[in-house]
Design brief:
Largest sheet: 5 strands, antiparallel
Radius of gyration: 13 Å
Protein name: Cupin domain-containing protein
Shape: globular
Number of strands: 8
Helix content: under 10%
Distance between the termini: 26 Å
Structural class: mainly beta
Pfam families: Cupin_2
Strand content: over 45%
Strand order of the largest sheet: 1-2-8-3-6
Order of helices and strands: EEEEEEEE
Number of helices: 0
Organism: Jeongeupia naejangsanensis
Low-confidence stretches: none
């Protein structure tokens, strides 16, 4: 049986994005981060909504329209509206996210 915490590589030069399921405009992804952050000056600007939850580890997001980072720990989640520009400013080792795009 598949497990969200199985097969997590120890050495990740880049974040790992895996599509777990999807249909029509909905896509569910597991994201594994190991200290990666968004490149300096880069902002995500997505056409779809994204709901994301941290299942393991911790992270910080910065939204362009806010002056402070949003801290996320285990169980913390956030809904990101389409075209709300954001970036990842911190991830702990072996951070596992679950993201739903719609």
């Amino acid at each position: 049986m598949p497990n969200l915490f199985a097969d997590i590589p120890r050495d990740l030069p880049d974040e790992l994005f895996e599509t777990l399921a999807g249909a029509g405009p909905v896509r569910i992804e597991r994201i594994v981060s190991n200290g990666q952050t968004s490149p300096e000056g880069f902002w995500y600007d997505q056409t779809e909504s994204e709901w994301v939850v941290v299942l393991q580890g911790s992270a910080r997001l910065r939204f362009e329209d806010e002056n402070a980072d949003t801290e996320l720990g285990v169980g913390d989640h956030v809904l990101i509206a389409p075209h709300r520009r954001h970036r990842v400013t911190y991830t702990a080792a072996a951070t596992v996210w679950l993201a739903v795009f719609f």
